[in-house]
Design brief:
40% helix, 8 helices, binds flavin mononucleotide, alpha+beta, five-stranded antiparallel beta sheet, two-stranded antiparallel sheet, globular, NADH Oxidase
């Protein structure tokens, strides 16, 4: 798919007809690893993905970790929990390199997730990034260590209905040119 077409075809999808097979999911996660990262620390050290795939695991996870509106939006989709390891990205040893601190970990993970959602669309799948989730329940369910910050849960699957595009602000509201 041409890149311009790809970025305009991606939408947050809140209705799935089906999930995704394991091999297709692995390919998308590998493509997401191509994202740029602080000092090329990459996902191996910093960003982590926890994939919930089986119907039984998904049912229990959804009920425990998502509010009902996100449970409904992500029904039939697989789920990926994304985390970053704290105090690595943006740190020199124990010391933050600048005022952003662990914000750089979130920044790296956001880039990774942007690649992930575009790679998914390119492979014919859709996604929904969900920031409204219960981090404590997720940590307990998936045994995620305390040194990882739990960020989003990303639904991934085959779209059920055509989503309509959300409006974007005029560029001059968000960009300044000097
Ligand atoms: C960090 C983040 C958290 C989000 N959390 C939720 C969420 O919990 N539930 C939801 O339905 N959409 C969520 N969204 C999706 C946004 O509402 C959506 O990206 C935005 O409205 C633009 O629509 P589009 O993705 O279709 O272009 C989230 C998006 C991001 C980037």
């Amino acid at each position: 798919m041409e890149f311009k077409e790809l970025i305009s075809a991606r939408r947050s999808v809140r209705g799935y007809a089906a999930g995704i097979g394991h091999d297709a999911l692995v390919e998308i996660l590998k493509e997401a690893q191509q994202a740029p990262s602080w000092k090329n620390q990459q996902t191996a050290r910093t960003a982590r993905c926890y994939a919930v795939e089986t119907p039984e695991a998904l049912e229990a996870f959804r009920a425990a970790a998502l509010p009902s509106f996100n449970q409904n939006s992500s029904a039939h989709a697989a789920l990926i929990v994304t985390t970053y390891v704290k105090n690595v990205v943006g740190f020199n040893g124990e010391t933050p390199v600048n005022e952003i601190g662990n914000g750089w970990g979130a920044y790296d993970l956001g880039l990774h997730d942007a690649y992930l959602v575009l790679a998914a669309r390119n492979a014919g799948y859709d996604t929904l990034i969900m920031g409204i989730r219960d981090a404590d329940a997720i940590r307990a369910k998936l045994n995620i260590p305390e040194n990882e910050e739990i960020m989003s849960v990303i639904a991934i699957g085959r779209r059920g209905a055509e989503p309509s595009p959300r409006p974007r602000k005029a560029l001059n509201e968000v960009a300044r040119f000097f």
